[in-house]
Specification:
This protein is mainly beta. Among the domains are: about 30-110, Ribbon (left handed beta-beta-3-solenoid); about 110-165, Cholin Binding (left handed beta-beta-3-solenoid, Ribbon), CATH 2.10.270.10. Helices cover about 0% and strands about 40% of the residues. The radius of gyration is 38 Å and the shape is rod-shaped. Mean pLDDT is about 85; it is low at about 1-30 and about 285-310. Keywords: Repeat.
């Protein structure tokens, strides 16, 4: 979006400057004309029709229609552009006409941005010329939100359809990025209750119901326990006190673990803590293959543990 003070076309291509008729192609001198009521007569007495005139007395543009009457008190389409004339027939320029904006040329602005110096805000005029309100406008890969009064939202949260979005100081919707402890998805909405894997941090994060990431402790998610560090990073393949979290991040329970760092087997009980300093009765299956009976944990029991096997 280009930041322009105005988005306007050039002025009328054919016009009367009192005393001089000119076009973009050539300039021709003429004697000064005069108003007669709401019509305009050239020096030779001929009535001006379907043409623009600029009145130096009023310092304003007027348009004489096919019947010779000046346009006034409403919109008029000249060529392929729409112009607004007040009750005195003066062309409106650089101003709002209800939901529409007319440029310095007087033409109604369409499909363009306008910056209102007085209100210090951007507005977007749609294909019909009306300002966008309560809606998103997409330009290229970027999205902008126009509020109820038509002003472009910036540096703020936008709530729409039950979702929350954030637009930056340029009015652009943020996507696939962190904003504080919140994460904005590829569609721009604030994620609530879901897992996020961030390649930049090579870590999983869990977004809670309030939209912030879980951190500094344990959380039970879908029946499993996970530990999150400061900053929301998921703890994986490590001991957390008496507990161990697997590669998935889930706390191990009722399961054997061989830790290469300690070169030893550990048994994680039903509550997730490791068994120590005593006896444990562990129900374990023996798998019989056509080669031999295989019972993996028996090879790694510590001296302080006795395994009582219950065959299934």
């Amino acid at each position: 979006m280009e930041h322009l003070n105005e988005t306007m076309e050039s002025g009328p291509s054919k016009c009367w400057l009192i005393g001089v008729f000119f076009t973009v192609v050539e300039t021709a001198k003429a004697d000064e004309g005069t108003w007669k009521g709401k019509t305009y007569l050239k020096a030779d007495g001929k009535q001006v029709t379907n043409q623009w005139i600029f009145d130096q007395t009023y310092q304003n543009w007027f348009y004489l229609k096919a019947d010779g009457q000046r346009a006034e008190n409403g919109w008029l389409t000249v060529g392929d552009k729409d112009y607004y004339f007040n009750e005195a027939g003066k062309l409106a320029t650089k101003t709002w006409i209800n939901q529409y904006y007319v440029a310095e040329s007087g033409a109604r602005v369409k499909n363009q941005w306008v910056f209102d110096q007085e209100k210090q805000s951007w507005y977007y005029l749609k294909s019909d010329g009306q300002k966008a309100q309560n809606e998103w406008i997409q330009q290229g890969q970027e999205k902008y939100y126009l509020k109820e009064d038509g002003k472009m939202a910036k540096d703020e949260w936008v709530t729409q359809g039950g979702n929350q979005y954030y637009v930056n100081s340029q009015g652009k919707m943020l996507k696939s990025t962190w904003l504080g402890k919140n994460y904005l998805s590829e569609n721009g909405n604030k994620v609530k209750q879901g897992w996020i894997y961030d390649d930049n941090y090579s870590s999983w994060f869990y977004i809670q119901q309030d939209g912030t990431y879980a951190e500094n402790g344990w959380r039970t998610i879908d029946g499993k326990d996970y530990h999150f560090k400061f900053g929301g990073y998921l703890s994986t393949e490590r001991w957390i006190g008496h507990f161990y979290v697997a590669k998935s991040g889930a706390k191990l329970k009722s399961e054997w673990l061989f830790d290469k760092n300690y070169d030893s087997w550990f048994y994680l009980k039903a509550d997730g803590t490791y068994a120590e300093k005593g006896w444990e009765t562990i129900k374990e299956k023996i798998t019989i293959s056509n080669q031999a009976a295989i019972f993996l944990p028996s090879a790694g029991l510590t001296a302080s543990m006795l395994l009582k096997v219950e065959l299934n």
